Amino acid sequence: MSNEVVNYYENYREEDRITTNNARRIEFLTTIYKFDKLLKGNLKILDCAAGTGAYAFYLADKGHNLTATDITPRHIKIINEQLKDRTYSMETKVLDATDMRCFEDGCFDVVLNMGPFYHLTDDMSRNKCLSESIRVLKKGGYLITAYIPRLYLNQMLVMSVIT
């Protein structure tokens, strides 16, 4: 992924994104509603491209075991600062979603891929991200991704991976 994306997010207040207008709040509320319906039990979840952790913290507060990653060091720093006030731990890493070699095959029950596809503009990068997400996902786990297609229709895709 290009330094252009990192540079953009180093200077953008991602931590305010979900609260700055009603459409963004609706996005968050709709997403967590779906999470609550789908994600039962104490799951091991990778939030790939977690931003500043809105979904990661929500799911960790529900009792899930979270690993939050993002390509932007500032975002991981913000997550780590917020973790100081929490009673639980969360693994965090600065990570490019197209290269997850630091994780073993099949080690997560759920992979949230709620951010990378907005920025991966070529087929090769998108395929690498998708392949890596599926590789680290347990058999029968959930890959949850969001993206805005050319027509800007907000969509969420949930895949149950059966291999």
From TrEMBL:
<dbReference type="InterPro" id="IPR029063">
    <property type="entry name" value="SAM-dependent_MTases_sf"/>
</dbReference>
<protein>
    <submittedName>
        <fullName>Methyltransferase domain protein</fullName>
    </submittedName>
</protein>
<dbReference type="InterPro" id="IPR013216">
    <property type="entry name" value="Methyltransf_11"/>
</dbReference>
<feature type="domain" description="Methyltransferase type 11">
    <location>
        <begin position="46"/>
        <end position="144"/>
    </location>
</feature>
<dbReference type="Pfam" id="PF08241">
    <property type="entry name" value="Methyltransf_11"/>
</dbReference>
<dbReference type="GO" id="GO:0032259">
    <property type="term" value="P:methylation"/>
</dbReference>
<dbReference type="GO" id="GO:0008757">
    <property type="term" value="F:S-adenosylmethionine-dependent methyltransferase activity"/>
</dbReference>
<keyword id="KW-0808">Transferase</keyword>
<keyword id="KW-0489">Methyltransferase</keyword>
